[in-house]
Amino acid sequence: MANLLHNSSFFLLLCLLHFVFVAKSQSFIGINYGQVADNLPAPEATAKLLQSTSIQKVRLYGSDPAIIKALANTGIGIMIGVANGDIPAMASDPNFAKGWLSSNVLPFYPASEIIVINVGNEVMSSNDQNLMTNLLPAMQNLQKALNDVSIGGKVKVSTVHSMAVMKQSDPPSSGSFDPNIGDLLKGLLEFNQATGSPFAINPYPFFAYQSDPRPDTLAFCLFQPNAGRVDAGTKIKYTNMFDAQVDAIRAALNAVGFKEVEIVIAETGWPYKGDSNEVGPSIENAKAYNGNLIAHLRSMVGTPLMPGKSVDTYLFAIYDEDLKPGPTSERSFGLFKPDLTMSYDIGLSKANNQVPTPKTPVSPSPNASPKAPVSLSPNPAPKAPVTPTLVPTPNTTVTPASPKTEKSVKAGVSDSQSQANINVGMLVLSQILWYTMLHMR
């Protein structure tokens, strides 16, 4: 009996330790910090804001020293970026890479926890052959500069891709890369594999919905109850667009022999406001997408092809960027306002107990008819003029919504709730250990 009790208690101990580890770890939740705006709060205020949330990582599109300094000693991991315009010089001159590192990393590291340097943003879908061919040499020179100062294994070098690098993504098992960039992409993937750096990419279910604006597609994109979509190749039923897009990327990587290369979601989000002719933007839809995404990540369920873990995911974005060109939606992705209040609540604050339930998802204009279904990776929209914070510009298809899309956000787990669960777990754990020792005497 004592032996049985001992074994049972040991099993419970392992379960509780796993629970505590998962509950404490929120390192897979990051956020993008763009700066194409004239009304942003001071970096120090933003650093304090981030520390009040469960966000553990920040992606910068450049390497603003004020922001990097403000994030020092916060425990927040930082992605920084090399501008697309610096790629040719970094590729042709190793000393340029060394100088860039000396100016943008070494004065701040390790107090500021720089974890990844992204060389360029969406270069492989830019159609700029000069940038595309210089990307890998630039990454190699920067990696050598990091190695020379003995931090090459700690600070990773990568680049960020748009979903336009995908030729096929529907169904997910057929995921494949654009053969027109196959050789260049293979070199980048070999670099990722050799250095242990991630394959960073920007999937946006929002743009997929704009390309196929039916009510059932909206529910699929917002993680809401829906009939699901069965992958004919694997017979796996997908219940949300995010998992389908991520698994299409995984399948594409596997198909070209890079099964061990990690995927990082460098951007994903949903705008809370748009023009009258834009389909999809609304506070309710943005709250549903981002809130349910966070709940999905915290569940540690993973995707069908990568079960039991959550990919690092950087939400887009911390603030609106009021100087961006294009439709209103391009300037309306911010989770927080310049006065540091929330645009809408998705349970990121450590003071919250749960993810609030959104109202009915809102679709605009009742006068348009839906398009036919399209691939999970719609054609990317044109890039904005030269700025460090480029994201695709949405299409402007208009379509009606349906009452069928009225579903609530799944409950998420905030840090305060996680901490409460941890405290209960630790209390139960101590009682089990005491009871086990008592009966093993």
From TrEMBL:
Catalysed reactions, as listed in the record: Hydrolysis of (1->3)-beta-D-glucosidic linkages in (1->3)-beta-D-glucans
BP GO terms, sorted: carbohydrate metabolic process; defense response
Keywords: Glycosidase, Hydrolase, Plant defense, Signal
Enzyme class, spelled out: hydrolase
Signal peptide: 1-25
EC number, UniProt record: 3.2.1.39
Presence of keyword Electron transport: no
GO molecular function, one term: glucan endo-1,3-beta-D-glucosidase activity
InterPro entries for this protein: GH, Glyco_hydro_17, Glyco_hydro_17_plant
Superkingdom as given in the UniProt entry: Eukaryota
Protein family according to the UniProt entry: Belongs to the glycosyl hydrolase 17 family.
Name of the molecule in the record: glucan endo-1,3-beta-D-glucosidase
Organism this protein belongs to: Solanum chilense (Tomato)
